[in-house]
Specification:
The complex is a heterodimer of chains A (about 240) and B (about 190).
Chain A lengths: L4 E4 L6 H6 L3 H10 L8 H45 L6 E3 L16 E3 L38 E4 L1 H6 L10 E11 L2 E8 L5 H10 L5 E9 L6 E3 L2 E5 L1
Parallel strand pairs in A: 4-9
Antiparallel strand pairs in A: 2-3, 5-6, 5-7, 7-8, 7-9
Chain B lengths: L10 H16 L5 H16 L5 H17 L11 H18 L6 E4 L1 H10 L6 H13 L2 H12 L4 H8 L3 H22 L1
Helix pairs in contact in B: 2-3, 2-4, 3-4, 4-8, 6-9, 7-9, 8-9
The chains are: A alpha+beta (about 240), B mainly alpha (about 190).
């Protein structure tokens, strides 16, 4: 529409001539043959409805499927990670065209494969990933739970508390570290300790300032020979 | 070419026309009187902007088919029915330009040339006439529309507003600006 033609003094068509070309019947006939608009048809609404329903179904299935898949993947990867942590690591370096020369051999360059092992690794073997069921890992029994002079949760006499040197736990488990939370003057204090020993000065401090408020031992990390370290239940003591 | 505008009508005439529209809304076969009344103005509006006479008749028929298809949606707003028809005509006309069925043409008569050259404050000479044609050829389509409606077809600003979906005042302002642009192109050429 950029270029425009310009007509100067084009002959005018008379009204009679235009009226001669009037044909309302032809227009009416054409109107009847013109198809109704697509959106007026039932077929249109039908197809819209079907595509909407199929879209919703597709959306539902596509959101459910990856969830299941991801869950399975996460479980698998956790187990692999645990297993890999306990497995000796293998390193191997593949060098091509190295400059090593062998005694009484030709100086011809040859391809060699050198296996480098780390001292902790006894044997170079490919990693075999095995799947383990978490439920098979032995758990602490209720009787094996850590305690202070046999008290896991509840009242303990001051004398008994002062006489206990450590947090006790049944063999073969041993306590790696723990956190002690107690009231001192105006506020609660939290201290972290390695091992199972409770220092004497701390015990005396607790006894002096406890103000009938509980002493809690949290984040108790326990381990055994066969198992990795894991977190176990907390201890709450009321000094009497 | 001055059109025989049906725009300015008495209230009685508008009311009579509304009765015809209501009948046509109930049954498209009653559209006949409206077709008879507006066939010529719509044809002239279309033919004024193109060169092919037969195609202009075809587009005119198309305008009335569209009008009859959508007559049920027509709402009376106190202006003649022709405004609605002109809008359909404009839409169909520009659709034919887009489809390359018709070529945009500006049909200008000597009397209109005199009016425009007079507006530019120049004398009507052969050279100035050529300069005007050249300027009209360069002018943007929206401005050409306004010049055509106002100076070639002698329509009122109110009617122009109805056709172009503008307020009367806006039509006036835009026409003034279009004429200024035409002047500017014309004077640049000289």
């Amino acid at each position: 529409m950029e270029s425009k033609k310009i007509n100067f003094n084009r002959p005018i068509i008379s009204t009679e001539e235009i009226n001669k070309r009037q044909n309302f019947d032809a227009v009416l006939m054409q109107l009847k043959t013109v198809k109704p608009y697509l959106f007026k048809k039932i077929l249109f609404y039908g197809s819209i409805g079907i595509s909407c329903i199929s879209g919703i179904i597709l959306l539902n299935t596509s959101t459910q499927f990856p969830t299941i898949k991801n869950k399975a993947y996460e479980e698998k990867s956790t187990l692999i990670k645990e297993k890999v942590n306990n497995t000796p690591v293998q390193f191997s370096i593949n060098t091509q065209k190295s400059n090593f020369q062998l005694k009484k051999k030709s100086s011809q360059k040859r391809e060699s494969k050198i296996a480098v092992t780390i001292s902790s690794v006894n044997k170079v073997e490919p990693i075999e990933v095995q799947y383990e069921n978490h439920s098979l890992i032995p758990q602490l029994k209720k009787t094996d739970l850590p305690s202070v002079s046999g008290v896991e949760n509840g009242e303990i006499s001051i004398e008994k508390f002062l006489n206990s040197d450590k947090i006790e736990v049944q063999q073969p488990f041993e306590i790696v570290r723990y956190k002690l939370n107690y009231f001192k003057i105006n506020d609660y204090v939290t201290l972290s300790f390695e091992g199972d020993h409770i220092p004497k000065e701390i015990k005396e401090e607790i006894v002096n300032y406890h103000n009938n408020l509980p002493v809690t031992i949290t984040n108790i990390i326990v381990k055994s020979n066969q198992l990795e370290a894991f977190n176990t239940s907390s201890i709450q003591l009321f000094l009497k | 070419m001055r059109v025989h505008s049906n725009f300015h009508q008495t209230n009685q005439l508008l009311q009579d026309e509304l009765d015809l529209i209501k009948k046509a809304q109930k049954n498209p076969e009653h559209f006949g009187p409206l077709y008879k009344k507006y066939h010529e103005p719509i044809f002239r509006y279309i033919y004024q902007r193109m060169d092919d006479e037969d195609l202009a008749y075809d587009i005119t028929s198309q305008v009335f088919i569209k009008a009859m298809q959508h007559i049920s949606k027509y709402e009376y707003r106190g202006v003649p029915f022709s405004s609605w028809l002109y809008r359909i005509a404009k839409s169909e006309l520009y659709q034919s330009f887009r489809d390359k069925k018709a070529a945009r043409t500006i049909n200008i008569e000597s009397v209109n040339v005199t009016v425009i050259i007079d507006e530019i404050d120049e004398n009507e000479t052969e050279e100035n006439r050529k300069k005007l044609f050249h300027a009209l050829g360069i002018l943007k389509e929206k401005d050409v529309q306004l010049i055509e409606l106002r100076f070639f077809e002698k329509r009122s600003f109110k009617e122009m507003g109805e056709i172009l979906a503008l307020t009367e005042n806006n039509a006036k302002v835009k026409t003034f600006r279009a004429l200024e642009k035409l002047k500017s192109i014309y004077l640049t050429k000289s």
